[in-house]
Each structure stands twice: as C-alpha cells, then as structure tokens.
Here is the input.
Amino acid sequence: MRTYGFSVARGLTLLCLPAETDPLAVAALLAEAPVRETPVALCAAVGAPDGALLLNLVGRFPPHLEALLPPGAVCERAVETVTFHGPHFGDRYGIAAATLDCLERGAVPLLAASFSGASVCLVVPTDWADRTVAALGGAFVGPTPTPEGDGAGPIGRGALP
Here is the structure.
C-alpha cells in the first residue's frame, strides 16, 4: 500500500492515564507541555492488562510532570513515534491489520497506537522507530527515507509519484 512517507519523532514521553481521570487534570497536564516544541497527541484509548481503559498522551513534557500525575497514571519516558498517512487510508479496509501484522512479524514492541482516518501513529520504545519503519516496509511503500536535522524531524517526506 502506498504512503506519503513516514515521520519519526524521538525523545517523547508516553503518559498512560486511567480513563476516569478528571478532565481538568488532563487539561493541567496538557498545559505543562511546551506547545511550541511539539504538540501533544491523543495516541489511543486502549485496554490495560487488567482490562481497565487508559487514555494515552504522547509529547514532550517537563521533568516535574510526574509529580502532577493522578493516581494510577504511568509515565514512560524516552519513547518514539512513527506516523504515516496514505491516500484513501480512511476509506480502505485492512490498514490496521496490515500495520499490526508487519509489527508482529518484525517483533516490534508496540506501546500504543492510533488509527484515525488517513493517519496511523505508533508509539515504540527508544531506538525502535527505524526498525518499525523497516518492518512496515512489508506492506507499505513510500518515498525514500531521508533523515533531517537532529533525527527528531520527518523522515521520508515527499509526494507520491
């Protein structure tokens, strides 16, 4: 399947908040993120191992954030995201299945994921983003990856031929 390329962001933090977290507490956490540096993204609402729902947020948060977390929250520092978009992904069947299949074959440890319209966002541990992109090559093609800057920016930007 064609994509518009893969974007990689490094040095992020994944917050896993219990679904019953007060919305005002979530807003306070979001206010702590340096918005100019990188936006905070709702990554997914997923089932925890004990069956509870979690609200996952990924972004750049200051070190003092952990003191603000509500009970039951988990802060996973040093994660990376791989994001990609494709033509008609929102209209196509099987994007999530193809993505998860590639990650399973590549033994990629997936921490969180979001499949929304034409966009896919995957959260992986540090040093796994490049391997994640390689694993996705089993089903997805796009422009040739070209690293930019310090490695925190987009990879593989460009239009489809």
Residues 12 and 94 are 28 Å apart (CA to CA).
